[in-house]
Every structure is written in C-alpha cells, then in structure tokens.
Amino acid sequence: PEWQRKLVTDPQTSGGLLIACAPEAVEAVQAAVRAEQGEAGTIVGEMKAGAARVVVA
User: Fold this and answer.
1) Which of 3, 6, 40, 48: disulfide with 30, CB 3.0–4.6 Å?
2) Which domain does 54 fall in, by range?
3) pLDDT tens column, 12-56
C-alpha cells in the first residue's frame, strides 16, 4: 500500500527510521521493510508493562 511506501521512504529521516509495533506484528513489519528496502533492520529494544523506567544494556 502507498502508506507503507511513504513510511519506509520518508525523506525527513535522512535514512534512519525507528518503528514501534506490537510483538505479534514484528515479522510482518520486518517483511514489509525488507520488501521495500532489501533489508529488515535491527530490533533495538522492547517495551514492557510496569513502572516507567529506561534500561540500557
């Protein structure tokens, strides 16, 4: 779909793009990015329910 093409190729990102999605959508999102860009990118973190905090490992 057109909205996916625009999301993946948005010029405002200067090449970088951070996407948040539900865990069950990860494979579909990676497949869509791979189809458009030739690679799926890298998972850099996750969000979990609970008290607000940031953990850098």
Assistant:
1) 40
2) 1-57
3) 656 667 888 999 999 999 999 889 888 878 888 888 889 988 888
Contact 9, 35 (CB under 8 A): no
What is the spatial distance between Cα 48 and Cα 41, in angstroms, rounded to a whole number?
21
Provide the number of structural domains found in the chain: 1
Q: What is the pTM of this model?
A: 0.59
For residue 20 the two structure tokens come to 């948040």
Quick count: other Cβ atoms within 10 Å of Cβ 25? 12
Tokens representing 2?
């057109």
The two tokens of residue 57 are 């490992």
> Could you tell me if 26 and 43 are in contact, meaning their C-beta atoms sit under 8 angstroms apart?
yes
